[in-house]
Amino acid sequence: MATEHVEADYICASAGCHRVWQHNHREVGIVAPCLTLTILARIIPLAPAYSQGRRGEAMAGMTPRERVMAATHKERADRLPFFHYWRHSQVGWAERECRNRGMGISWTRPPYTVKMHGVDMAETQAVSSGRVVVRRTYSTPVGSVYLDERREPGVGQWHASRSWRDVNPWQTSRLIKGPEDYEVVKYMVEHTEYIADYFPIEQAMEWLGDDGVVIDALPHSPMQMLMIDWVGSDGGRFFLHHADYPDLVEGLYRAISKSYEPLYEIAARSPAPISLCGDNIDGFLVNPDLFKRYFMPEYEKQARVLHQQGKLMAVHMDGRVGVLKELIPETPIDIVEALHPPPMGDLPIGEALSLWKDKVVWVGFPGSVYVQGPEATRRHALELLKDVIPGDRLVIEMSTENLVSNENLLMLTSVLEKAELPLTNEGVERIEASLRPG
Hints:
disordered N terminus, 34% helix, TIM Barrel, globular, 20% strand, alpha/beta, 15 helices
């Protein structure tokens, strides 16, 4: 059996981190937080400001980027901003038509590379529970840990780590399986270095121009790294570890939090205007007590650094957040990103905007509506517009999780391209009338 052996000291974003941080972050081991900060890339000013107008006053003739940034700065654009993430986007006639009709594009890219010191990483093919998996083993002076990963065809061949069907690799065996693994992973955390590399950001900004927005891609916050990636919550594993080995869990949490500090400095100096913490918040896993104890303090620390450099902070909250709705406005987050309305989420967007008066909401259009076809997409989009009148502090994401068919993409664009601001009931009725057959 062939074995690919890589010295972990030489893992970089182009070969690893860019794969890692595309949404679900399955390849967690090679992106352990950093030990020191080395600035290699030149630091350039933030991206040019959008064309600003007075608060509440529409700015006509805006580009997709200007619309997104106006809404994100709590200004009123000429139309409701909407965009598609590159990681979920098809390329072809339908995508081109939607972009010609106002749809923007967004790229999330890491502003850093990673080096792990004193850690060797090797990948082999293995069989687990009758299935072929990729086994990645990390060897350190204090022991070894491994994870097993199931990959669909297409991984690494187009959208970063995603398969042809837009599915990320799935871990069938987590990095931390028992108490003996915490020391090894903590060693990895304390011997990992983040290095600033702004080339991916600069390249994407040059390519996109005014067609969209480039965003810094940052990892899960410390406790979410454990809950989603390294320990995992399937079968209640994280919660059992938290109850049975509280000192080990807390110790690793604190180590990650400390080691993230240089990463926040790197992101703050990136030319991208927004940094996204890919936290995948869901109140079913992150209950209010956990959110207050482990997440809010980390958001405070991250936001403090970003805001000092004029950067905006977004957090990926694509789950059910109803139980957290009273706590979210107490955070320094600027953008609640990927918020899904019912039926996938449990908090209507209009209610969220009413509760979080100093937050901007980027809405993830529900994939469960897309599977019902273009007519369901049209109906849901119109109901969404009615719910968010007048449409301020709002951006629509065509998808944050899955591919969108040509038919659904065109239908949603047919609704959103006509959403002039401020939204009114009469205006939404005109949009609805314009889409009736005949």
